[in-house]
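Support request from a user on the community tier.

User writes: "When I paste my structure tokens into the form, the page sometimes reloads and wipes my input. The last time it worked, I copied everything first. Here is what I submitted, just in case something in the input itself triggers the reload:"
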């Protein structure tokens, strides 16, 4: 069947199509209904069926490939390299599961995972899935205030953490950030399970902090069977930024997710059992969930978990070829990264790409942010392999737009992630009227008609009303899911993504809410008002730029004062949210550009920062605000 036929069938004969895909995973109880959309937009997939994500990722491979590599851990931060076979992974996951049970974790309880890229992060996620607990992984780059808000929302029974992460050889202590987060949070977890890597000494809170090495030793021989859960049982929540300061807990099911991942591994990533998948993301992001941990393992592949920079070798010395050395050593067939990482490599010696045998690699997949044409061409020429852009979101869990070469080989177009994947009824609509834009090359908001396919978020954790209001009521007159991205579609049906319609920004493939950064900056006593916008950046795609009105202009009277204050404000963001959210610059201005009704003119502000025309300014209250900012960005 052609792509067009498969896509058409996935929408017109939805039940039959997904019932077939569901055969890619094991079910304990077969499902009685494929798609229950009786209460839209709350679609339920494979109801009546019971399954388990850990069983599908680990246990079911024990019969056929117990000694095959499953998890390959490589750290250029600590110089460690270790390959876990499926049977070793099976054993490790049971040790972790037994430890969680010993700490009182029950089915449906939340376990918050705040870990660097170490094997225990994968053990923890799989162990939760095994016992029906709901994991909530928080990216290790987030600091105490971000972490505290997630603790309060998820209300975890246990937090799993480590003494430290490491970045470019510099130890980043996690425990003090976690202790501070728990101090700030209203909800107090019963226990903290600590993985001690021996990187940073830390204090243990008596009665609360447990040592993972001790529990692991105690439970070496404990058998923990998989708990069969309903297909609709939440497997995890993952927080993502939106337009308010409060992050949203994206909630995912179990059965639909397993099926969507299994299908995507075949149709999009073309992975076969026994092959090796290498995703350079982090377990704290959705790509890490779907394509470091669950997807490749469900497909019976080995997955590489890499801790470190793309430019640093095992000996801690600069090495721009480290990734490619892993491709050669582990015969990687599919690799997944982000455009930012490629832009970093582009600055290195191009010979790095020719040093190793990359013949095993079939394609490089890139996602998370717009892939610019020069970057795509550079890496495509350098690798001599197809570069496959794929567009999706934390909410979707797997690609919305790409080319599915596993269904039908199809040309990619530079600048376009591709075409809708099976199950996705993607449309473009007019922002103001909600009218569908059917013609070629018309710019509109990218929306998806329900029911959404398996694997897509079920709801916002404990906030169905927010799920409906945020995603399904933003387009006038229609109940469709909004991606909050602008797009166009060309005459061949290929989509192009033109950036967000909301206040979310994308820094180096990391999604950040400008409101969260603004709230953090506002907590500095010198700040009266602040606006944060995303500004185009050659390396990171976008960077956050902060404009601050001070309570007293005298605080930044001269250049030295201003520089010091800028540093202080950045430090506030670092300690509250994490360095990942730190703005590139903090600029002090007399006023912010607003409408007469007091609404910040974000798009105009962003345009001025990027040297573009700010557009219609008839509603602006005080035009001098924008002029002052324009002057800051005009070369003298
Ligand atoms: P996240 O939820 O962090 O994965 O961020 C999702 C957002 O990243 C999307 O809504 C887009 O704005 C952007 N994005 C992800 N992948 C792509 C892509 N391939 N091309 C353009 N933008 C992308």
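"...and here is what came back when it finally went through:"
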């Amino acid at each position: 069947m052609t792509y067009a036929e498969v896509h058409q069938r996935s929408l017109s004969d939805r039940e039959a199509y997904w019932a077939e895909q569901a055969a890619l995973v094991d079910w304990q109880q077969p499902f009685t209904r494929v798609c229950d959309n009786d209460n839209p937009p709350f679609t339920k997939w494979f109801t009546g069926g019971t399954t388990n994500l850990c069983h599908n990722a680990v246990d079911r491979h024990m019969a056929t490939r117990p000694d095959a590599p499953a998890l390959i851990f490589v750290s250029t931060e600590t110089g460690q390299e270790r390959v876990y076979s499926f049977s070793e992974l099976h054993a490790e996951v049971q040790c972790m599961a037994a430890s969680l049970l010993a700490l009182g974790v029950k089915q449906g309880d939340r376990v918050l995972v705040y870990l660097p890229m170490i094997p225990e992060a994968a053990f923890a996620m799989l162990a939760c899935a095994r016992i029906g607990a709901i994991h909530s992984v928080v990216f290790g780059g987030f600091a105490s205030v971000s972490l505290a808000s997630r603790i309060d929302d998820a209300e975890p029974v246990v937090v799993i953490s480590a003494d430290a992460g490491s970045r470019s050889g510099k130890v980043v202590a996690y425990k003090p950030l976690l202790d501070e987060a728990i101090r700030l949070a209203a909800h107090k977890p019963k226990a903290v399970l600590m993985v001690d890597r021996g990187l940073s000494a830390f204090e243990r809170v008596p009665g609360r902090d447990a040592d993972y090495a001790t529990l692991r030793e105690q439970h070496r021989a404990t058998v923990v069977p998989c708990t069969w859960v309903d297909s609709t049982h939440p497997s995890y929540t993952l927080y993502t930024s939106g337009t308010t300061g409060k992050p949203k807990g994206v909630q995912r099911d179990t059965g639909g997710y397993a099926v969507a991942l299994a299908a995507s591994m075949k149709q999009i990533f073309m992975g076969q059992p026994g092959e090796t998948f290498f995703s350079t993301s982090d377990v704290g992001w959705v790509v890490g969930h779907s394509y470091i941990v669950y997807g490749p393992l469900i497909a019976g592949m080995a997955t590489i978990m890499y801790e470190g920079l793309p430019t640093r070798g095992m000996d801690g010395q600069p090495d721009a070829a480290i990734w490619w050395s892993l491709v050669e050593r582990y015969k990687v067939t599919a690799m997944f990264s982000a455009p930012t990482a490629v832009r970093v490599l582009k600055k290195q010696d191009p010979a790095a790409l020719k040093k190793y045998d990359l013949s095993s690699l079939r394609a490089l997949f890139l996602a998370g942010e717009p892939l610019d044409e020069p970057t795509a061409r550079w890496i495509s020429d350098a690798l001599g392999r197809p570069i496959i852009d794929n567009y999706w979101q934390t909410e979707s869990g797997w690609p919305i737009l790409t080319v599915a070469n596993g269904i039908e080989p199809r040309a990619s177009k530079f600048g376009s992630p591709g075409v809708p994947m099976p199950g996705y009824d993607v449309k473009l609509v007019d922002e103001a009227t909600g009218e569908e834009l059917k013609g070629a090359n018309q710019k509109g908001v990218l929306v998806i008609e329900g029911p959404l396919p398996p694997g897509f978020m079920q709801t916002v954790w404990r906030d169905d009303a927010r799920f409906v209001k945020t995603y399904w009521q933003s387009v006038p007159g229609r109940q469709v899911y909004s991606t909050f991205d602008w797009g166009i579609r060309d005459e061949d049906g290929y989509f192009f993504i033109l950036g967000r319609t909301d206040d979310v920004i994308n820094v180096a493939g990391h999604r950040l809410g400008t409101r969260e950064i603004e709230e953090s900056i506002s907590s500095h006593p010198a700040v009266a008002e602040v606006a944060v916008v995303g500004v185009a950046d050659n390396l990171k795609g976008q960077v956050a730029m902060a404009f601050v009105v001070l309570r007293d202009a005298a605080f930044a009277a001269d250049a030295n004062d201003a520089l010091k204050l800028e540093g202080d404000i950045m430090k506030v963001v670092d300690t509250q949210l994490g360095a990942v959210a730190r703005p590139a610059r903090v600029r002090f201005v007399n006023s912010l550009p607003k409408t007469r009704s007091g609404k910040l003119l974000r798009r105009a502000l962003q345009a001025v920062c990027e040297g573009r025309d700010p557009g219609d300014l008839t509603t602006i209250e005080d035009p001098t605000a924008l002029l002052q900012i324009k002057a800051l960005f005009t070369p003298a």
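Agent notes: The reload is a front-end session timeout and is unrelated to the input. The longest strand covers residues 527-537. The radius of gyration is 24 Å. Escalated to web team.
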